[in-house]
Design goal:
256 residues; mainly alpha; 66% helix
């Protein structure tokens, strides 16, 4: 403090203090926060850091407050995209969806403008959000749609949680197994990348898809044999059965 002016030697401390002010503004009302963020020319990258602090404080304070602030920012036509994108990143930090968060997800899903970014940013690898969307039959609706882009995004979304929540992936895709080669490959591509990380039920689905013509990607036989030796035997047996006719033909036989 010099000449009755306060200066900050560390930018992070200053950002935190401004973020704290935005947080208190949000507690008054979401509209008050929108006003504090200023017009578009004032919504700089620095302001983004301030909002980041405010959102983190809101999330720590309570999910209800965080969701009210997040929706206010996302729905406002006065807020620039890079600040809204920050909100989508913050949503990814929610790991236990309470009623306010579930309601927010429902609202975003119905907004065609917000949905694509929500799927690729907030939902990706977030097994809590994906689980809720599955239980709400939203994912099933997306997979059954005629929108190829939406279907492919949903496939990638399910693949992102395949290791943590394999049962959801299996539940969502089982109705599509055997429908067509395209769907078989979609389902196969949604499974764990490394076969040794499959759950038992996922590995059974993988074997079913291989028998239907899906081609496995790289298989780390050494790791698989060490972690799941029985799966190696299953795969070898499947390969032998697949090429049985060719293997049983005498090497020097001549067709007459």
């Amino acid at each position: 403090k010099q000449s009755r002016q306060i200066s900050f030697r560390h930018q992070a401390l200053f950002d935190y203090q401004v973020g704290k002010r935005l947080f208190y503004a949000a507690l008054k009302s979401p509209e008050y926060l929108i006003n504090e963020l200023g017009n578009e020319s004032q919504q700089t990258l620095t302001k983004r850091e301030h909002l980041k602090y405010a959102l983190n404080m809101a999330l720590d304070y309570g999910q209800n407050e965080f969701c009210n602030v997040s929706l206010a920012v996302l729905n406002s036509d006065k807020i620039r995209f890079h600040l809204k994108y920050l909100v989508f990143n913050s949503l990814k930090e929610i790991t236990d969806l309470k009623s306010s968060a579930r309601s927010m997800v429902d609202t975003i899903v119905q907004d065609s403008g917000l949905l694509p970014i929500f799927m690729s940013t907030s939902c990706y690898s977030n097994h809590s959000i994906v689980s809720y969307l599955s239980n709400s039959r939203v994912i099933s609706t997306w997979l059954n749609s005629d929108n190829e882009t939406l279907i492919n995004k949903t496939v990638r979304l399910l693949n992102s949680v395949a290791e943590k929540t394999p049962d959801i992936v299996i539940k969502e895709f089982t109705p599509f197994v055997g429908i067509s080669e395209i769907w078989n490959n979609r389902v196969y591509n949604s499974l764990c990348w490394d076969m040794e990380n499959d759950s038992d039920s996922m590995f059974e689905l993988r074997k079913q898809l291989i028998n239907l013509g899906c081609k496995p990607q790289f298989i780390n036989w050494k790791v698989l044999a060490k972690k799941n030796p029985s799966r190696v035997l299953d795969l070898i047996e499947m390969l032998l059965n697949h090429y049985k006719d060719s293997l049983c033909v005498p090497r020097h036989s001549i067709d007459r």
